[in-house]
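Input record (one chain):
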Amino acid sequence: MASSEACNSTHEITELSSFSFSFSVIISLLTVATNLAVILSLLRKKNILRQSTFHKILLNIALADLLTGLISDPISISFHGKEMLRIPISSAETKTLHVTLFIINGASILTMVLLCIDRVIALKWPILYRNGLANRKCLLVLSSTWALSSVLVISYFEYGYIKYLAVFSTTAVATACVSLFMTIGIFRIHIFNKSSKLELNLFKNTKANNLENCGKENRIDNISSKENSSNDTQSNSSNCKDNIRTEIKRKKKLKIERSVNKSFINMLVVFLLSYLPACVMIAYMNTCDACNCILIHVARDLTYLIILSSAFFRPVNFIYRLKMIKVRIRLLR
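The corresponding structure, as predicted from the sequence alone:
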């Protein structure tokens, strides 16, 4: 028995190394495939991408997750493959394994915060949101997530993997919880209550206008000639159709907004469900005084694999929830 820091960074548990190696191979292929599909579907809609801050943020998340599949996963495959074959692993390889994971996933988590801010602005200040953010400013903000993530990882070299992992996971979970509660609260208040009432009033007003126009048509038929009544009827009928089209457009916009917010909420829920078991294992690694090194190694590998797999679950959620991406992926086939 020893403290968690006293346990070696590698182990000789062949079954665990084989599992981590196999899992890394599978999750790498899935992560690259799903994120490439999301990125290609977004790039095919260049007009929407230029105008929409939401889709730019989405693209940044997908790029970060793609880099996880292209960089972090292959490093994990190499590391666990060497561990499985009992090939010596240098300290530099171990640090590269950890640093790449923290930088790329840190950028992805920080971008999720931007996505939360984007959703809050869209719900609270829709007029301001429609004006959007200038492309240069948006690029600067998104680049800052990578810069900040790279700066924060410096503390890893001072505190070590297990202690920094505790800070990283706790911050990530706390950020996700705040984002989740904030989004759900504003979503329920402004979408389900105010927007639903507004849509109901608009529908009632449209219906009343339609009835009034129909009554006018009947009175005109009784007073005016057939030619005049025919022209007025066509005019009123055209107004009715315009009102109906406007109503349909409003309902479509509301439906899209609900779908986008539900997608973000689902992403946060999946993120929390995957990170909470990791937090339990990280808490054990950081608090045990007489630790079982075998259990420490199992916890280390599992927490690492859980963080890696989050880069696969995010694009799956976007593909499932967002209609635009779903349609684009079908066309790519």
